[in-house]
Amino acid sequence: MKKGIIIYRKDDSLKNDFFINKCLSQLNDSHFQLQFVVEDDVALYLKNQYVDFAIYRGRDYRTIEKLNHLGLKVFNNSLTNKIANNKYLTYQLFNELNLPCITTYLDSESLSFPYIMKSVDGHGGQEVFLIDKLDKKQLILAKYPHKTFIYQPFTSNTGDVRLYLLNKKFVKAVKRENQNDFRNNYSLGGQASLYTPNSQIIEQAEWLARYLEADYIGIDLLLTEESYAFNEIEDPVGSRMLYEISDIDIIALYITHIKKQLEQ
């Protein structure tokens, strides 16, 4: 029997009980055993329990490295988690792979108003600001003195697209639009609809997933009138939006992938 743990930070687990419970229901049988563990309790849990694998749903790649050091197979790997949770590293990777993306800076000196200011480790549309005057930037820096920010030119867009990729293959895409906010995030009131990307977008996204050797990620694109730009990588990537507008059971597909990997 393979024994595993699914890991969330405590505050995140409260918002993701659907994902947790679905994993628990599908990875507890005669061949697999899965237990939910809060991230802060993982070290203590592993002192008393033998564990073969982990489904890591946090944002600290160092936790994955520690688990790997203890011999655990972890979904996703540390490289994926590290890059996805640092927006400047994400931008650098897009550049390295020659993917179309928004030029990104570590300071705003070369930008004119308005521009976008984001913390490198924010998620869910949080800590993303539209800067139209210097005073606003200074107020944000004062509010978050220990945060690192990136800066991007404001790009008019027609919405953004989240691509869901599983085992390095494209599964489904969702377009998000928000008439009341410059951020299109579903959690911030954005409207979601299924979207069919062209073959070039799919090919580029799968290439990125192969580079990362990612198990399950989201890739966000910004749509413009004439083209698109790779914007962010999501790990962990949520699934609520996909369940609400499609019949794709992405968690079941993810669990099937995990089982196959563990049986090799």
Report on this structure.
This protein has 264 residues and is of the alpha/beta class. The chain folds into 3 domains: 2-75, Rossmann fold (3-Layer(aba) Sandwich); 83-101 and 156-247, ATP-grasp fold, B domain (D-amino Acid Aminotransferase, Chain A, domain 1), CATH 3.30.470; 115-153. The protein has helices at residues 10-15, 17-26, 42-48, 61-69, 78-84, 87-96, 134-143, 199-212, 240-245, 250-263, and strands spanning 2-8, 32-38, 53-56, 73-75, 115-119, 128-131, 149-153, 159-166, 169-177, 191-194, 216-223, 228-234. The strands form 3 sheets. It has a 5-stranded antiparallel β-sheet. The protein has a 4-stranded parallel β-sheet with strand order 2-1-3-4, with helices on both faces. Strands 6-5-7 form a 3-stranded antiparallel β-sheet, with helices on one face. A hairpin with an 8-residue loop joins strand 5 and strand 6. The two termini are 14 Å apart. The model has no long low-confidence stretch (mean pLDDT 94).
